[in-house]
Amino acid sequence: MIKKKQNSLKKEKNKEIISEDRKKYLKSIKINKIKILVTQITLVIVLIVAWEILARTR
Description:
By secondary structure, the chain is mainly α. It has a domain at 19-58. 93% of the residues lie in helices and 0% in strands. The protein is built from 2 helices and no strands.
């Protein structure tokens, strides 16, 4: 129980230490990862749809 409280206090201190530039950097990385994931999912869906269309037309 005591360790949990210490860990939560350390996390609160770490949040205060992070600079605004670092926060922007981390946010941009997170957004970039989301963009990549959306692109990958979209590409898979497009390929499956194209496959099905080509399979039905032949």
